[in-house]
From TrEMBL, chain A:
InterPro entries: MetI-like, MetI-like_sf. It comes from the Bacteria. It is found in: Cell membrane. It is a multi-pass membrane protein. Coiled coil: none annotated. This is Multiple sugar transport system permease protein. Its main location: membrane. The chain crosses the membrane at residues 7-26, 70-92, 101-122, 134-154, 187-207, 238-259. Gene3D superfamilies: MetI-like. It comes from Nonomuraea africana.
From TrEMBL, chain B:
Pfam families: BPD_transp_1. The chain crosses the membrane at residues 33-60, 92-118, 130-150, 177-202, 235-256, 283-303. Residues 93-304 form the ABC transmembrane type-1 domain. The keyword Manganese does not apply. Keywords: Cell membrane, Membrane, Sugar transport, Transmembrane, Transmembrane helix, Transport. SUPFAM superfamilies: MetI-like. It is a multi-pass membrane protein. Belongs to the binding-protein-dependent transport system permease family. It comes from the Bacteria. It is found in: Cell membrane. It comes from Nonomuraea africana. This is Multiple sugar transport system permease protein.
């Protein structure tokens, strides 16, 4: 009994640095500027106001930036699912000349952090006239290094799928592509879910690439936009930054709490399979 | 499915594939073509966005490239000589190493502690697991901004410390504390991921082992060191590789929290690379720093891979 109380106590204390920042972010964003730095700090806004939330939209094209982040993340997720499912299936299930060598070549991409190639990537996209567009933020994750991990996960999954299912489909006269689409893909739903979750989060969090590739505020993505709420002296406008940060963090957090099993298992899955 | 019907369906499948498509257009050829078609987007993307830029990085590092003056000229090893004589490079490497080591040690031990606590037979562990994991899904820059807010001189952390009568430092503007702060912020952000991996590994350890050890009178610590750790060592290797690789790529946290300061105390390699290439427009030197980053990542990955035999216990 004493051991249990001790354990619960320990867990509660350890929880604080994980939960407190998000709580502080959400509550402070509702405080008027004068109250943000009040001492002693209040855990709940004394006079809640939505002033900061209003300012977020006045100071920057925040709705546009929100949309940018959202549609880029969705496009990247759908694109990655298509590319990695096709490639993963082929590497696992179709016998073709050089497949092992090609797989190793593609897999080597995992060894190369995107930060290593950011300078030449910038030059390439600059040469194609695609800087300050969203193309680099979509194309590179979908077919470049980030999707290699997705392809690897999909391949591992298709490898353990029972062969008889496909053979039965072939007996029924289904072609390769139809077998992939009608048998393989529906069965791969858990792996697709895992890939979708980590791809979406990855794109939603991207920071280095947007600040390298984008220069006009109406093209910015959320992480980049968050740091732009500064006053005339370059100091951060805290309540506005926290309001914008809340709007960026809370939707994903809410989805996570509702579907936490899928999230945790999905992400654990992808790690374990590596 | 019985063995017989299985082999039957296999041979049926084979005949089904071979009949009806006669001559040159065989199943084998069709499979070859389809295989290439299926992997084409991934392969083309890897060549265009991974291997071509990697080759270009080496090429650029041998050139002086000033975008503002629009000059591009071959300078041979000059950038590498600059790398060796750059007074910032030793401190940048020190900061990078300090960050990686601090992150890995703190991250793995905290993740393991949380996993062991949550692995006890206790009600409500799912709730705690959700809470510890939740920062993983909070957007990185949002998380970093809140911590930046909390860690100011007159921020929330110091306000709490003041309640206990402690005068806290200006966390992000004091040499050593700035680095410690960046590490701590990063650990709380992502430790949930490693915790989940450890938890999955712990659940795979057979309980009989602990019961046998308890009969032999082994203490909890001995059980942990002699049973738990060896049994989950493959996961320890995996998480440490992931964490080290991630630690070398840290950028947003530095850019938002400290901008590499105070001085260069939190200027890690990727941040320095970004400054040189995209703030000072020294693309040639930026490429040289990229080569350095690549070499370090490669060396560390190979090292960890070779060391796996030493400390990873495999159940034979």
């Amino acid at each position: 009994m004493r051991r249990k109380t001790l354990l619960y106590g320990l867990l509660c204390v350890l929880c604080v640095p994980f939960v407190f920042p998000t709580w502080w972010m959400a509550t402070s964003s509702l405080k008027p500027v004068s109250e943000v730095f009040a001492f002693p700090p209040s855990l709940w806004p004394g006079r809640p106001t939505l002033e900061a939330y209003q300012q977020v939209f006045e100071l920057q094209p925040f709705a546009q930036q929100y949309w940018n982040s959202l549609y880029i993340a969705v496009a990247v997720t759908l694109g990655t699912l298509a590319v990695s499912a096709l490639a993963g299936y082929a590497f696992a299930r179709i016998r073709f000349r050089g497949s092992n060598v090609l797989f190793v070549i593609v897999l080597t991409g995992l060894l190369i952090p995107s930060e290593v190639t950011i300078v030449p990537l910038f030059q390439l996209f600059h040469g194609w006239g695609l800087t300050d567009t969203h193309w680099p933020l979509i194309l590179v994750p979908v077919v470049g290094a980030p999707s290699v991990l997705a392809t690897f996960i999909m391949r591992q999954f298709f490898l353990v799928l029972p062969r008889e299912l496909e053979e039965a489909a072939a007996v029924d006269g289904l072609g390769r592509f139809a077998t992939f689409r009608r048998i393989g893909l529906p069965l791969a739903r858990p792996a697709l879910g895992a890939v979708a979750i980590f791809t979406f989060l990855h794109s939603w969090n991207l920071y280095l690439e947007p600040i390298v590739f984008l220069s006009s505020p109406e093209k910015f993505t959320l992480p980049q936009a968050l740091t732009q709420f500064v006053d005339a002296y370059g100091g951060p406008m805290w309540n506005v930054q926290l309001a914008a940060a809340s709007m960026t963090a809370l939707p994903v957090l809410v989805v996570f709490v509702l579907a936490q099993k899928q999230f945790v298992e999905g992400l654990a899955h992808t790690g374990l399979k590596g | 499915m019985t063995v017989q019907s299985q082999s039957q369906s296999q041979s049926l499948a084979r005949t089904a594939r071979h009949t009806g498509r006669a001559g040159w257009w065989t199943t084998r050829r069709r499979d070859h073509l389809l295989g290439y078609l299926f992997i084409a987007p991934q392969l083309a993307g890897s060549l265009l966005f991974v291997f071509l830029p990697l080759a270009l990085v080496f090429y650029y590092s041998l050139n002086e490239w000033n975008v503002l003056a629009d000059t591009f000229s071959f300078v041979g090893a000059e950038n590498y000589q600059q790398l060796l004589s750059d007074p910032n490079v030793p401190s940048v490497l020190m900061a990078t190493g300090f960050f990686s080591i601090g992150l890995v040690v703190f991250n793995l031990s905290l993740a393991l502690l949380l996993a062991v606590l949550l692995n006890q037979r206790l009600r409500g562990t799912t709730v705690f697991r959700t809470l510890f994991f939740s920062p993983v899904v909070v957007s990185l820059v949002a998380w970093t901004i809140v911590w930046g807010f909390l860690l100011q001189k007159n921020g929330g952390i110091n306000a709490i410390l003041q309640v206990f009568g402690i005068e806290g430092p200006n966390w992000l503007r004091t040499g050593t504390w700035a680095m410690v702060s960046v590490i701590v912020v990063q650990v709380f952000k992502n430790v949930g991921l490693n915790m989940v991996l450890f938890l999955a590994a712990l659940q795979g350890v057979p309980r009989e082992l602990f019961e046998a050890a308890r009969l032999d009178g082994a203490s909890a610590w001995t059980q942990f060191r002699r049973i738990t750790l060896p049994m989950i060592s493959p996961t320890v290797l995996l998480t440490s590789i992931i964490t080290v690789a991630g630690s070398l790529q840290v950028f947003a946290q530095i850019a938002v929290l400290t901008q590499g300061g105070p001085g260069t105390s939190t200027t890690v390699l990727v941040y320095y690379l970004y400054q040189q290439a995209f703030q000072f427009h020294h693309f040639g030197y930026g490429a040289t720093l990229s080569v350095l980053l690549f070499v370090i990542v490669l060396a560390l990955t190979l090292l960890q891979w070779r060391m796996r035999r030493r400390w990873v216990f495999h159940e034979a």
